Amino acid sequence: MKVIILAGGYGTRLTEYTNDIPKPMVKIGKEPILTHIMRIFSSFGCENFIIAAGYKQEVINDYYKDSIRLQKEFPNLEIVDTGKDTMTGGRILKLKHYFNENENFFMTYGDGLSDVDLNKLKKFHDSHGKIATVTAVHPSVRFGELEITNDRVINFEEKPQAKAGWINGGFFVLNYKVFDYIKDDTTMFERQPMEKLANEEKLMAFKHEGFWKCMDTLRDKILLEQMWNEKKAVWKK
C-alpha cells in the first residue's frame, strides 16, 4: 500500500530547530525522524512513499535526492510541494491523483513514532469496510503522574502513558472515498472531515496499547534521542 506522510507544517513548538529546517527533518540519532517513520512502514513491506511537503520543502528534497544510499533504500519516494500554508486536509487532497478509485492507503504525520503493528491495522480496516481507520493511542501525561493513597505518594511515574482515554495517534488507513470529505486547501483533516466521518459512522478506531510518541517539543525530541542512544528505540523493527 502507498503511504502519505504529512511533512509540510511550520513546527512552531520546536523553533530551536524549525527556524532552519522542517520538523520532519529534525534528527533522532543521526537521521531525520522522517527516515525513522519510513523505516517503520518499510519493515511491513510498504515501499511507495508520498511526502506531502510545504514549509522548507527544498530541505527534504535535497536531503533524499542527493543521497545515493537513501535513493536505494527508498526507491519509490515522491516529495510533493503541497504549499506552505495548506492545512492537513488540503495536503491530502492535493495527492488525490496518485490513487485509483476505491484504493486504500496509509497516512500518518511526519513527527510520530510507534511500534504499532501495521499488518494488524490494515487487517482491522479491511474487516470493517469503512472509509477511515485511525490508530487510537493513550496520551502522554504532561508531567509526572502521582498515585496517592491517604495523602501519601505510593507511586511516581515520569511522564507515563495515561491509563485511560484515547487520542489520535496518526497511522491511518484511508479509502479513496475520503477525498470527497475534503473541501479545499483550508480544510484541517482533523476537524470537519473526521467529524463528518464519525457522525456518519464511517470512522473506526484501531486501539494501540503499545509505544507511541509525538515529537512536538524540544523535551519530546530529547526523550526520543535518549531512547535511541540507550538502544531502547522500540519503534525500530
In short:
The protein is an alpha/beta fold and 237 residues long. It has eight helices and 14 strands.
Distance between the termini: 18 Å
Return the average pLDDT rounded to an integer. Answer: 92
Order of helices and strands: EHEEHEHHEHEEHEEEEEHEEH
Strand content: 25-35%
Low-pLDDT segments, ≥5 res: none
DSSP summary: helix tally: 8
Strands, count: 14
Helix content: 25-40%
Largest sheet: 8 strands, mixed
Shape: globular
Q: Which structural class best describes the helix and strand composition?
A: alpha/beta
- Over all CA atoms, what is the radius of gyration? 18 Å
Write structural notes for this entry.
The chain has 237 residues and is an alpha/beta fold. The two termini are 18 Å apart. It contains 8 helices and 14 strands. The protein has helices spanning 15-18, 33-42, 57-65, 68-73, 88-93, 118-128, 192-199, 218-229; strands at residues 3-7, 27-28, 31-32, 48-53, 76-81, 104-109, 112-114, 132-137, 145-149, 152-157, 167-168, 172-175, 203-207, 212-214. It is globular, with a radius of gyration of 18 Å. Strands 1, 4, 5, 6, 8, 11, 12 and 13 form an 8-stranded mixed sheet that branches. A two-stranded antiparallel ribbon has the order 2-3. 28% of the residues lie in helices and 26% in strands.
